[in-house]
Amino acid sequence: MIVMGVESSCDETGVGIVRWNGDGTCELLADEVASSVDQHARYGGVVPEVASRAHLEAIVPTMRRALTAAGIGKPDALAVTIGPGLAGALLVGVAAAKAYAAAWDIPFYAVNHLGGHVAVDTLEHGPMPPCVALLVSGGHTHLLHVEDLAKPITELGTTVDDAAGEAFDKVARLLGLGFPGGPALDAAAQHGDRNAIPFPRGMTGPKDARHDFSFSGLKTAVARYVESKERAGENYSVPDIAASFQEAVADVLTMKAVRAARDVGVATLVLGGGATANSRIRSLAEERCAEAGLTLRVPKPRLCTDNGVMIASLGAHVIAGGAAPSLLTVASDPGLSVATSQVFT
Ligand code: ATP
Ligand code: MG
Ligand code: FE
After folding, report:
1. How far apart are CA 147 and CA 138, in angstroms?
2. pLDDT for 91-119, tens place per residue?
3. Which ligand places an atom closest to the C-alpha of 310?
């Protein structure tokens, strides 16, 4: 069975094609991504209308490139991200997927973007055992309990305000490092002292929800720190701020992820989302998983950011799990909860 996955929830137009191996894994046949990230740089963040227009221009050529790369005329089934994501952006991928599925007369599956971030790891690291997944990107920060990729996923926690990647982007902007700020901030942090400034660890108090996150207080703390230094006419070190901020984010994310894995009794932690490219999040996750006796699985960076392969992989899992195809009338859902890895109407 060959499955095509279409992704358009944010600023990446992704079309991936995989072959289901029948053992809980897939083989990659095509991975085509067109990103509009450069068009958003001057605004300092993803502009939904700009992203939607870019998807419109990119979707058909990206689809064609994927078919050529895979050397096929059409897949056996088509999966598409139905949510969560930007409303106008989602519409483009969903409309295209429905049109192609109808024209090709193949089954169509509307799947949850978040489950895709977990499913994609099966391409590199084998079938997925019950796990906790930590997803961190510009748009999401989630702790998920995944028992079976073909079944609804339980959300253990999420951010109550900013996403972790968004905090990286905002702090990087404040420090004059450009957009997307995550990679630039990570690079600046390499030359700084991560213990220089004790920035707050949000939602780690005894009364806070065990698995939720908050990053807006941290972002404000960085802004206050810079303001106070400027007001006093004192010098401050951008690398030290970057390293200390990054440490605060990585500390909370990895501490809560390991705690969540312990709470639900799984032996595996999976990372996903573009911000898991962060060097400190990776190294601290490795350290803490080793201490806690957990297996850490991290897809390669290309598959951590949004792409079509993750949707194809999740599609293959739900099809193999016996799911009925979605109807062509299914509507995209920008606020889709993670508890539905598959959507019907
Ligand atoms: P979505 O939220 O729908 O997954 P997105 O476009 O917001 O999509 P990705 O494309 O997965 O997210 O990842 C981009 C985010 O990852 C940006 O916020 C970027 O700053 C952040 N990022 C990338 N590399 C790093 C890094 N080395 N350190 C920290 N953050 C990073
Ligand atoms: Mg992106
Ligand atoms: Fe994503």
Report:
1. 25
2. 999 999 999 999 999 999 999 999 999 99
3. 3
How does residue 345 score in pLDDT terms, banded at 50, 70 and 90?
A: low
Q: What is the DSSP string of 134-185?
A: EEESSS-EEEEEES-TTSPPEEEEEBSSS-HHHHHHHHHHHTT--SSHHHHH
Supply the DSSP symbol for 202. T
307 lines ligand 1 (CB under 6 A): no
Residues 6 or more apart whose CB falls under 8 angstroms from that of 88 comprise 48, 49, 51, 52
- Ligand 2 centroid–CA 166 distance in Å is 11
Distance CA 186, CA 281 (A): 10
β-bridge pairing 342-343 and 26-35: unpaired
Share of the chain above pLDDT 90, in %: 90
- For the chain, what is the radius of gyration of the CA atoms? 20
For residue range 177-223, what is the model confidence (pLDDT) as tens digits?
A: 988 899 999 999 999 999 999 999 999 988 888 899 999 999 999 99
Q: Are 7 and 19 in contact (CB under 8 A)?
A: no
Query: Which tokens in the block code for residue 321?
Result: 């799990």
Contacts of 96 (CB under 8 A, 6+ apart): 6, 8, 59, 60, 63
Minimum-distance ligand to the CA of 273? 1
Nearest 10 degrees: Cα torsion 19, 125, 263, 339: -20
- Regarding beta strands 141-146 and 154-158, do their DSSP bridges make them parallel or antiparallel, or are they unpaired? antiparallel
Q: How many helices (H) and strands (E) does the chain have?
A: 12, 11
